[in-house]
Amino acid sequence: MEDSAAVAGLLWDRWLPANVRALISGVLPGGERDGRRLAVWLAGVHDVGKATPAFACQVDQLADVMRAQGLEMRTRRQFGPDRRLAPHGLAGQVLLAQWLEERHGWTGRQSAQFAVVVGGHHGVMPDHGQLKGLDDRPHLLRTPGASRALWRRVQAELLDACADEFGVRDRLAVWQAVKLPQPVQVLLSALVIVADWIASNPDLFPYFPQAAHRTGAERVAAAWEGLRLPGPWTAVEPPAVVGELFRTRFDLPSGAVVRPVQAAAVRLARGMPVPGLMVIEAPMGEGKTEAALAVAEVFAARSGAGGVFFALPTMATGNAMFPRLLDWLKRLPAVDGTRLSALLAHSKAALNDDYADLMRKGAQRVAAVEVDEEERCWRPADEKRIASAELVAHAWLRGRKKAMLSSFVAGTIDQLLFAGLKSRHLALRHLAVAGKVVVIDEAHAYDTYMSAYLDRVLSWLGAYRVPVVVLSATLPAARRRQLAEAYAGGESPAGCAEFEAVARVNAYPLLTAVPPGGVPVVECPQVSGRGASVHLERLDDDFGVLADRLAAELEGGGCVLVVRNTVNRVLETARVLRERLGEDAVTVAHSRFIDVDRAANDADLLAWFGPPGKSPKRPRGPHVVVASQVAEQSLDVDFDLLVSDLCPVDLLLQRMGRLHRHERGEDQADRPQQLRTARCLVTGADWTGQVPVPARGSVAVYGAYGLLRSAAVLLEHLDAPHRPVRLLSDISPLVQSAYAEDTTAPDGWAEAMDAARQRHEEHRKDQAERAGAFRLDTVGRPGRALIGWVAAGVGDADDTRAGRAQVRDSKESLEVVVVQRRPDGSLATVDWIAPDKAGLELPLDRPPAPRAARAAAACGLRLPAQFSYAEVMDRAIAELEELYVPAWQVKDSHWLAGQLILALDADCQTRLAGFHLRYSPSDGLEVTRA
């Protein structure tokens, strides 16, 4: 108890960002001093529930010593299953609440908001049912009979001693009138969890008598030094001149000028009454990322935030952003000796080389005391996973979840959306974001389902007063208003004129800013003057027609990007084009590659089709890249001609951003002559009828209504006089028209549009309802205890297939690690990857060597939708578990523990759940019915 309190004090003094300390202290009469005292006291009393018969009976020798002192208790066997109704966190909550009420005159409502912090220190706040169950079984807290009074006296003496030792006895009467806001309760809970983990680590706090020669202060000082927990970033006000700010923070080319959007964003950030939400809407290539980082620095200096979390739509975009974040960090001013921690946060982060280097430099084992239950054996088929306390603590402080507690994080949007998902250790996720500036990229990429989680998270971020920057090239006006209202929270007047005005603004680029609990303001900066005009043309949805057209277009050479809406269409298109243009003239890019191959594909695309001067391998002859939606985001690639399946107009505009992205010679003179005009051929639909009929696979992905709305707003660009799409001035009008609620269908389209709209509305309603199943509740009124805060949740959110699927509108998916089976039956890493990683032995009787295990883990693959249907998934898991290797399910094999293993034969083929699987490094995974 004393160690935990001391650690909590150090965490408060040296680790918590200033804005978190201010939020906690701001509701207490004594300010910062009261905030620190409260945190230390709660950490000190968090284990008082161990002073109960239900806990003390677990070790017979120790229980006998207590019995000899008059503290009678049943044996563990005599208690039976009832003992599990009094885990020591819950027991501690009840004991603390009783002590505050009986000895200090608090009411139950007053005590609950403080005591719940103790109850939730193992990751889940108790619910009313658990409290009632324990209340009905008082013998679990104090043995009936003669020793009952002694148990009560011991418990009271412990709490009295803590109140004196940690200096809160004379503060309790003052705190009685405090109504702790729920965000403050969450942050205190998270702080106690971290303090408990650190103080419970025998490597840092050796058990008696190993450290008997040290005083308590010396023990704590040595433990803190051994932990090497980096402190928060302390941002200083950046240069007042915007040009100087951008020149010193970013590697701008000589003569570069700060763009109007960037300058306006920094100016607006400095002019807000307090840091809050800023939405930056601007075209692709306008430097929104740099603007966001500059605004984040201003916000952090003004708010006391101790870091930045950059949330991106996919792992690929997260990987691409991470080195840019590191480059920015190198240019930030830092106090001498300050260590800034920067990590990557997604489920495959450990396979990123930049991340792996940082983790190796900070490698350290962290242990923790176990909760009051035996560790359950877990297998991949289990729907929920409750990891051991040691594994959870290690994951958060030194393992894969450490990234979220680091000062600077680049990760997938899932890691942010998990803050809105009822799950174990949710308080830690809130602490992780509460001390940062949060940047959300590609906000237009999230559907109704994900938006429901995002809006709930934004409401909590507003309550924490966390500064947020949202980036989008194509954001519908109604969605802009929803984001602003969600962040402003309940304090803002519902439906006020300022929020209505936000949804009516049609200017572009556009900046929208709103402080927590405030009203929004908008600013309309000028465009930079950059941008291109893209000529659109229909193309019949026939593979042969496409092959003929591209053969003609590429007679003089050139690079073409063909974007298909499904992987099956990608593979079929590539097959036809290779027959016509040759094997070497066609490259495939989609999501159905193993991780290491997909990373190599992205690197190749940048080397071949990146910006001038950075693409040394750009093909001299004709070349076609056939890609799925992976080409829409993050990759700075540049093509001479674009072919795209019909898709929602905002996504089509994103795809157009890969067309003539850079200037290649004066007036594009370095491009093939017939490809110097930017053109996009729109296919993926039957255009012959009055109403276009999108390809069935596209409807399955996007829905018919979004596709028809896209086709409708593009009519003036597809039909005579074929006005080109201007990638600056037309972006906002096209997006707003496509997503407007009140719209008129083109002549002859009304019946098809009405039917599609009805299905669309039903789907959106269904999404919203399903999103509410595990979604966190709204912020409760101040003083309302967090009892049952995550009741009926999903366990450890990102350790389960259900948790990962919950924040995205997707079925549970199967992810496997791909290996190869040798002729003799042994396993090895796949044979086509880098020579130093290929063909490494994976023994079945012991954990593989670390190099081999990491090489295997880098071959992760998400199986396609065919394996997401319940019966198929169950059959697939049953077949995959035939290769369950017990020797790999240990801490020393963390790369492969808990993974499903898919073994391919020497020809890279296998069968699974009635399907034939074939893999090739050039085309990825192909699945057909067996």
Description:
- With 930 residues, the protein is of the alpha/beta class.
- It is 42% helix and 12% strand.
- The strands form five sheets. An eight-stranded mixed beta sheet has the order 3-4-2-5-6-1-7-8, with helices on both faces. Strands 11-12-10-13-14-9-17 form a seven-stranded mixed beta sheet, with helices on both faces. Strands 18, 19, 20, 21 and 22 form a five-stranded mixed beta sheet that branches.
- The longest helix is centred in the last third of the chain and has 22 residues, at 750-771.
- It is globular and about 95 Å long.
List descriptors:
930 residues, alpha/beta, seven-stranded mixed β-sheet, 37 helices, 12% strand
Secondary structure: elements and pairs:
Elements: H1 2-14, H2 18-25, H3 31-45, H4 53-56, H5 60-68, H6 76-79, H7 88-104, H8 108-119, H9 128-135, H10 148-165, H11 172-175, H12 182-199, H13 216-227, H14 242-249, H15 260-271, E1 277-281, H16 288-303, E2 308-312, H17 315-331, E3 342-345, H18 353-361, H19 389-397, H20 402-405, E4 408-412, H21 413-417, H22 426-434, E5 437-440, H23 448-464, E6 468-472, H24 477-488, H25 497-504, E7 510-514, E8 521-523, E9 533-538, H26 543-553, E10 559-563, H27 567-581, E11 586-589, H28 595-609, E12 623-627, E13 641-645, H29 649-656, E14 679-683, E15 685-686, E16 693-694, H30 696-702, H31 704-713, H32 715-718, E17 725-726, H33 731-739, H34 750-771, H35 801-806, E18 815-821, E19 827-828, E20 841-842, H36 850-857, E21 860-862, H37 870-880, E22 900-904, E23 909-912, E24 915-920, E25 924-929
Parallel strand pairs: 1-6, 2-4, 2-5, 3-4, 5-6, 9-14, 10-12, 10-13, 11-12, 13-14, 18-22
Antiparallel strand pairs: 1-7, 7-8, 9-17, 15-16, 18-19, 18-21, 19-20, 23-24, 24-25
Helix pairs in contact: 1-3, 1-12, 1-13, 2-3, 3-12, 7-8, 8-12, 12-22, 15-16, 23-24, 23-34, 24-25, 26-27, 30-31, 31-33, 31-34
